[in-house]
Specification:
Strand order of the largest sheet: 1-2-3-4-5-6
Strand content: 25-35%
Helix content: 40-55%
Length: 187
């Protein structure tokens, strides 16, 4: 279906969390088609894709094709809507990120802690905030953003350096105490 058909579909089938779904979809399409010469857009509400159900899939394509057979220039976008459970929608988005090019969450709740915002940025998940008639892109999505391995390596290397530093300091302290005691005994 296209955006107009999606608007009609929402009038008949929308959940409470999908109150601003049309404006969210419109914002996403505008954001991704601004610099992209495309032929068409397909909207798939509550679509099961590769065994995973998405609240909304948006397929922006160069040639007439299906999401399963997309080319490198086509874009598949996933959206998860949630009214107030930020932790749950972030978990859902992280799990679905590997199946799409871009992933968004659309909520009317705010991020309440830094860890939630950090997870969104780490996984390259876009965040759209909506409230009544207000719909705003808060965090841009990234196509290739999952750098968990490099983050873990960095954290482990820092921890390892701290352990080694502490071990060296302890050894030096023992040597100094031993040398100090030897000199006291000589004196």
């Amino acid at each position: 279906m296209n955006l107009k058909q999606y608007k009609k579909w929402l009038e008949e089938n929308a959940n409470k969390e999908e109150r601003q779904a049309y404006k969210v979809a419109e914002l996403i399409v505008d954001y991704h088609t601004f610099r992209f010469d495309y032929e068409g857009i397909k909207i798939f509400p509550r679509k099961k894709f590769k065994g995973i159900e998405f609240d909304l899939l948006i397929y922006i394509y160069k040639k007439s094709s299906k999401p399963e057979n997309r080319t490198g220039r086509d874009i598949l976008i996933g959206v998860e809507f949630k009214e107030n459970d930020m932790d749950k929608v972030i978990k859902q988005a992280i799990a679905r990120k590997e199946f799409v090019d871009y992933m968004y969450i659309a909520t009317c709740c705010r991020v309440w802690n830094v860890e939630q915002l950090f997870l969104l940025a780490l996984y390259g998940i876009g965040w759209i905030f909506w409230d009544n008639q207000f719909v705003k892109l808060i965090l841009e999505p990234k196509r290739y953003a999952n750098k968990v391995n490099s983050l873990i390596d960095y954290l482990l290397n820092n921890k390892l350096k701290a352990i080694i530093r502490q071990t060296v300091i302890e050894r030096i302290k023992r040597e100094i105490e031993k040398e100090t005691q030897r000199r006291i005994d000589e004196w």
